[in-house]
Amino acid sequence: MFTAHDKLKPSYDVVIIGGGGHGLASAYYLARDHGITNVAVLEKGYIGGGNTGRNTTIIRSNYLTPEGVKFYDKSVQLYQDLSTEFDLNLFYSTRGHFTLAHTDSAMRTMRWRAEVNKHYGIASEVVGPEEVKRQTPQIDLSCGGHAPIQGALYHAPGAVARHDAVAWGYGRGADMRGAEIHQQTAVTGIEVKGGKVVGVHTTKGFISTNKVICAVAGFTPRITDMVGFKTPIFVHPLQAMVSEPMKPWLDTILVSGSLHIYVSQSARGELVMGASLDPYEVQSTRSTLDFPEGLAAHLLDMFPFLSHSKVVRQWAGMADMTPDFAPIMGMTPVEGFYLDSGWGTWGFKATPVCGKTMAWTAVNDKPHELITGFSLDRFRNYSLTGEKGAASVGH
Ligand code: FAD
Ligand code: PYC
Q1: Residue % of the chain over a pLDDT of 90
Q2: Fewest beta carbons less than 10 Å away: which of 112, 217, 248, 319?
Q3: Where does the record place the Rhodanese domain (predicted)?
């Protein structure tokens, strides 16, 4: 699918660490928007093999902060044209997204989000249980009597897409324009002189470069250790699973922070499901038995008729969590080292806008206007961008 490159060149204008969606999208927009093609994407495994290929593919812009809403809205807009732009079907499917509220305090947060969303022109509204039932007739609104649904935030543009295809589309687009994608090539060290990046050590040799974009999600602390600064990122596993395929019955995307569950039905008919973060900090992609047990129990609260359905796969990714549930993007204390990180449980939807804004930031050596609220400095300045109420995943 991609041009094979046996060897690395001795130098590149830009080196991108990480061949997930974000790294590949950065290479794509460097080439498409800025004509910069002397670029290497270095991926220690295979492209899309990290969190990009492990997520539950929910795309939405119903965030809580003005910074978040504007940023994710741009991403949703970019997603609309991607299948055509790539000449590749991304199975982008607008479903409508319900964030269920089972308590008075959850209803309050939904109202808050709805008002911020409407202010920025995003289609979000608070609805009652009858609207949830109208669009998802199979649901037990009492949730087994444990947690009756009081209402929901309804976000009509909420969508799902085929995650691998997003990585392949950006990868192919970057490759066609001249960027090099090197799989099975790990970055092992970064050379910094006088506070500036001068090169990158890899398992295939040394490369000179003055610009590095780091887009490695759950591996971020290992790379920032190489350049000598710390971020407040903690890595927790996030697990997911799918059911056996079934005839289409679930049109919508349902999320419940209280029941710790999100679920949608894929184009293949599988129910795609996830829950909360694992509660311990560990850099591992092992999955556990208690995860499907807990998730199945909550799924049955909502849909008791699924009690005989089978789980066919489960897996885990490594979520790079930040204290305020917003990403860390842009400039760093090291000149020429640009960070795209802190994507935790929420970064798939941001793939297009991250690629576009990171490419711009690296070219112009200043943060793109859409990412100024996500700077690393905000933790030093006590000016956090609090998105916890919009994370969708109970923590
Ligand atoms: P990745 O796809 O993880 O890519 C990083 C790459 O860097 C990896 O391929 C890795 O191999 C490579 N790498 C690491 N170290 C090195 C090195 N030293 N040298 C070379 N390469 C290296 N987000 C949503 O928006 N919606 C969702 O529904 C959603 N659900 C999720 C469910 C789960 C179970 C998980 C785990 C995450 C979910 N997310 C979701 C979050 C989302 O998946 C991520 O935020 C996003 O995919 C991050 O993309 P990325 O390209 O930055 O990272
Ligand atoms: O960001 O919408 C999201 C999400 C849902 C599940 C995991 N992340």
Answers
A1: 96
A2: 248
A3: 14-58
Q: Which amino acid is at 269?
A: G
Give the lowest-confidence range in 21-25, 276-280, 303-307, 346-350: 276-280
CA 75 to chain centre: 11
Please state, in angstroms and rounded to a whole number, the distance separating the CA atoms of residues 251 and 265: 7
Q: Which domains does the chain have, with CATH numbers?
A: 93-158+234-321 (3.30.9.10)
CB 336 within 8 A of CB 210: yes
Q: Please state, in angstroms and rounded to a whole number, the distance separating the CA atoms of residues 7 and 1.
A: 18
Strands 271-277, 39-42: pairing is unpaired
Q: Is the ipTM reported for this complex over the cut 0.90?
A: yes
Ligand nearest to the CA of 55: 1
Cβ atoms of residues 105 and 147 within 8 Å: no
Decide if 281 contacts 221 (C-beta within 8 A).
Answer: no
* CB-CB contact of 152 with 110 (8 Å): yes
- The pLDDT score that the predictor gives to residue 63 is 96
Q: Please report, as a single letter, which amino acid is at residue 167.
A: A
Please name every residue paired with 239 in a beta bridge, in sequence order, or none if there are none.
316
Tell whether the model's pLDDT for residue 71 goes beyond 80.
yes
pLDDT confidence of residue 325? 96
Name residues contacting ligand 2 (CB within 6 A): 56, 58, 60, 262, 274, 345-346, 392-393
Beta-carbon contacts of residue 116 (< 8 Å; ≥ 6 apart)? 63, 64, 65, 66, 69
The answer to whether residue 395 scores a pLDDT higher than 60 is: no
Give the model confidence (pLDDT) of 182-196 as tens digits. Answer: 999 999 999 999 999
How far apart are the C-alpha atoms of 54 and 169, rounded to whole Å? 17
Q: Which ligand is nearest to the CA of 220?
A: 1
CA 57 to centroid of ligand 1, rounded, Å = 12
d(C-alpha 195, C-alpha 362), whole Å = 16
